[in-house]
User: What shape does this take?
Amino acid sequence: MSNVANRAKFIKILLLHIYLNLHLQVYPKFNLVLLYNVWIFKVKQKIYFDIKNLLFLHVCSNIYRRKEDMMEKIDINNFTLEELEEYVVSLGEKKFHAKQIFKWIHKLKVIDFDEMTDISKSLREKLKENTYILTMNVIKCQISQKDGTMKFLIGLNDGCAIESVFMKYNHGNTLCVSTQVGCKMGCKFCASTKEGFERSLRASEIEGQILTVERYTNEKISNVVYMGIGEPLDNYDNTVKSIRIINNPQGLNIGARHISLSTCGLVPNIYRLADENIQCTLSISLHATTDEKRRDIMPIANRYSIDELLNACKDYIKKTGRRISFEYALISGKNDSYEDALALAKLLRGMIAHVNLIPVNEIKEKDIELFNSLNILFFGNIDNKSVESKLKSVENVNVSPRIPYKEALSYMLNSEVLLL
Assistant: This one.
């Protein structure tokens, strides 16, 4: 190939990359992927190009043209029913159509407005022109050979990806959802903080994980836990909005008492949540019994003490009447001693609460090791045989990072020994 042809190709790919760079500047991580996939190198003063990557850039250009079109339109999945009613009226249509549309999207899970057969063609055309139905794609599904638990890597429209975990239980199917791309909280035992924080999810993207997994598995999800990537109360408005969408009888209709929300302890937002009149279960990532130990593994403890956190929890219990679940990740040599067990029991005594003991996965980069198997004896009324069977059940876990145990410390919480 002549030098002129090479130069022409170089100019073409350079202009294309400049074009993409202008449109991708707010998505640096995805832009980095493009840079890695542009192979330009010199051999004997001639420039050669990998045609596959030229095509890759061309495809990306088309993707982002579609993305620009979507950005001009409204994500209709992100409306609550009340917001959708207002929007439908603003289009000059009757308010009752909102319930029909909401049902088609959230209960029947359609991805095309033309599938909404009980809505007039004129309204469908208005919706097509001004809105879009959010769809998210499964990039990868990892299935545990042990219990069938499914871990999903789900792609978002801006090139980011999140994780959701689908678990089957006798009482129904549970999905663990993410609320952010990455996490700011920096808890040492959590691997999702290693990649940093990109952005918070919209309410539609939180609920969209349920719709995506239900379509993929053809299974009904009856329980939702906000324990995936991100801190739900750091994305407060979208988290609460997603719960209202998920809970709506015209949509997925998942009862609030079948929804659990986990937080590392953003105290002001726990008080806010108590006033929302949402009957979801609140889970607190406690993981230590003293401020000193908690600060060592959870940076949020530098902002709020355990006393401040527990006062917010007591306020939540008082206003909602709901029991709180305290999560306690057992980390070898840090929080799994006999003294820790006694201190935890004393700390929570008198509260309507239960404790989930979590055998933390090892994270070499953060010097986190699996707890000492003997020390679990201090954290529950479990004999040696059941300890062995439970430890055996968590070996080689490669899907779900959280393996809740049965209620722990119940015998300690009621023990007179704690009065000493």
Remarks:
- Residues 23-52, 61-66, 365-378, 380-420 have pLDDT under 50 and may be disordered.
- The CA atoms of residues 106 and 375 lie 46 Å apart.
- The chain is about 40% helix and 20% strand.
- Residues 3-24 form the longest helix (22 residues).
